[in-house]
Amino acid sequence: MKHLPRPSLWVLVAALVLLPIMLPNNYALDIAVRVALAAVAAIGLNLAMGFAGQVSIGHAAFLAIGAYASGIIGARYSWPPLVGVAAAAACAGVVAWLIAKPVLRLRGHSLTMATLGLGVIVNIALVNEVALTGGPDGMPMPPFEVLGFIFAKVMHWYALSAVLLVVAVLLSLNLFDSPAGRALRGMNGAEVAARVAGVDVGSFKVRAFVASAVFASVAGSLTAYYVGFISPSLASFSQSVELATMVVLGGMASTFGALLGAAVLTVLPQLLGGLHGYESILFGLILMVTMIFLPRGVVPSLALLFKRSR
Fold first, then answer.
1. CA distances from 89 to 33, 92, 107, 227, 253 (A)
2. What mean pLDDT is predicted for residues 157-172?
3. Half-sphere exposure of 137 (CA within 13 A, CB side)
4. Percentage of residues in the chain having pLDDT higher than 70
5. How many angstroms separate the Cα of 274 from the Cα of each of 36, 208, 263, 266?
6. What b-and-e string marks burial along 74-100, b requiring 16 or more CB atoms within 10 Å of the CB?
7. C-beta of residue 101 within 8 angstroms of C-beta of residue 206
8. Rounded to an integer, what distance in angstroms lies between the CA atom of residue 21 and that of residue 28?
9. Which of 13-27, 116-130, 293-307 shows the lowest mean pLDDT across its residues?
10. Disulfide-capable partner of 58 in 115, 198, 264, 275 (CB 3.0 to 4.6 Å)?
11. Which of 216, 215, 222, 211 is nearest to 240 (CA)?
12. Where are the domains of the chain?
């Protein structure tokens, strides 16, 4: 693996190993699990938004596809959970591939509205297909069992989500400096110039979109198994906006930025929960101030300030 010796990756691994020792209780560990799973989805969305410049505000649809597909496969057909997660990821990838070619021809606001439409369609389907999905009431998930071992404790889930997060970061970092990653970043900055240079822009856009959908599906599947229950709210507009905000807040085209954005947007509402109705106002104010003073996102802006100060 090209980026395995990278110091930032080793720091992440060390932090993930030490975190359970430092956290005071299972509640804090539960938040850490949710951060890791959200970060996987955000890192995937960053492939489409940050690398390829495809602004998607309907990406929660793939979270829901992963969750419901794995849930239906596991609960109704008794497939092993890992097989269900893989099958759900394949399903999300196929759906993304089918819609990518017509949707990704659009640009700007048109592309944004098209991705919003995808989320709305999936949400409506989940609500109306009562016999299959449980409708508005949702559906319970079976236990997550691998080779006879049941993930029943929060520490089990922390270990699984931490490994998944490291894999997601490693894949994203390897893509970033690969020829494909350079092509994606190049067409994001100047699509016409990328075409002139021989980059198959359409093909790269489709690949990035499909990869981001697979990341989201895996995160959605494991989130569903962890929580033990799923509902159509997983494909809601607010969920999609939250995912997109994680990428923008942390920093577009920054793998660790997406991770930081997921951590902030998952942890901050918990810290502000005791403000009795004012937490949303303060939360929005914090996001506004951050984007005003760090317009490129937290990680790229701080990295640029650090370089200038040296």
1. 20, 5, 26, 19, 23
2. 96
3. 6
4. 90
5. 24, 40, 19, 15
6. beeeebebeebbbbbbebbbebbeebb
7. yes
8. 11
9. 293-307
10. 115
11. 216
12. 7-237
Tokens of 275: 């403000």
Retrieve residue 31's tokens. 């938040």
**DSSP structural state of residue 153:** S
| pLDDT (0 to 100) of residue 214 | 96
Secondary structure element (H or E) that encloses residue 195, with its range: helix 191-196
Q: Tokens for 162?
A: 């931490």
Model-wide pTM > 0.70: yes
Residue 214 to residues 35, 85, 221, 228, 291: CA-CA distances in angstroms? 18, 10, 10, 21, 29
Nearest to residue 20, comparing CAs of 152, 161, 143, 220?
A: 161
Residue type, 82: L
Closest CA to 262 of 22, 85, 44: 44
Token pair 């020829």: residue: 179
**C-alpha count within 13 angstroms, C-beta hemisphere, residue 74:** 28
- 3-state SS, residue 287: helix
Segment 85-107 shows an average pLDDT of 87
Question: What is residue 146's three-state secondary structure?
Answer: strand
Sole residue written with tokens 């793939």: 62
User: Which residues are paired to 145 by β-bridges?
Assistant: 150
pLDDT at 3 (0 to 100): 40
What average pLDDT score do residues 228-248 get?
91
Q: Which two tokens stand for residue 123?
A: 């949400």
Residue indicated by tokens 């980026």: 3
Assess contact for 252 and 246: CB atoms under 8 A.
no
Burial code (b: 16+ CB inside 10 Å, e: under 16) for 277-309 equals eebeeebeeebeeebeebebbbbbbebeeeeee
